Amino acid sequence: MPDHTKPNQNKSSSFQIRLGQQRDVPKVTHILVTSFYHQCPQWLYPLAVWSISLDLGVRLLDSNPYYACLVATSGINFEAIATLEISIRPIPTNHSYWLNWETSQQPYISNLAVHPQWRRKGIALKLLTAVDQKVRSWGFKDIYLHVLDSNKEALELYKLAGYRIYKVDPEFSLNIFSSSQRLLLQKSID
Question: Which DSSP category does 31 fall into?
Fold first, then answer.
C-alpha cells in the first residue's frame, strides 16, 4: 500500500509560487517552527506556534507595498510547502560596521524555510528567483539577507542563487552562546 504521508518523489517540479494569504498562516507557521525551532523544549513549542502565527497574520494584513510573503505550494494539494518573506529594512552602506552607521532602505529576505519533506528539490532556489521579480517591480537593484557561516547548506544555496558576502556582522560575533559568525549577503539583480 502506498505511503500518502510523503510527497511523490516524481512530482519534485510540480509546485507553484504565489503570494501568501491569511489561509496560509497555519501551514506557514508549521514550516517556520519546524525549520527554526526544532530543538526547542516541547513546552515552548505552543508558544512559538502562537507567536509566529500572530506575527505572520499581522504582516499579511498590513497594506505595506514593500512587503511580500511568498509561498511555494505543492501540485498535489496546493498547500504551502515553503515560504520566504521580503521587506524593506535598513542596511549599512559602508562595509565597516564600526566606522559608518549610515544605512539605506533595501530589500531584505527573511524566513526562508522549506518543509523537511520537500527539501533538496529546488524549491528554495525557485523562491529566491521569484523574489528577484518582486524586488525589480519595487524599483530596487539589490537584495540582502543574513545567514550563519555554520549553515553550509544555506550558504551553498545562496551562492548558487548569486549572493555574495557583503559584510560579517561583528556584533553577532560577540555572542558568547555561538561560535558562528552572521554574514550579510547581497545580490545585484541588474
Answer: H
Q: What grid cell was written down for 94?
A: 559602508
**DSSP bridge pairs for 104:** 91
Residue pair 113/147 in contact by the 8 Å Cβ criterion: no
Question: Are 28 and 83 within 8 A, CB to CB?
Answer: yes
Total-model pTM: 0.85
- Angle, in degrees to the nearest 10, between helices 152-160 and 123-138: 50
Closest Cα to residue 153, out of 133, 186, 125, 189? 125
**Residue 122: pLDDT band with limits 50, 70, 90:** very high
Compute the residue count for the chain.
Answer: 190
The dihedral over CA atoms of 128, 125, 10, 15, expressed in degrees to the nearest 10, equals 0
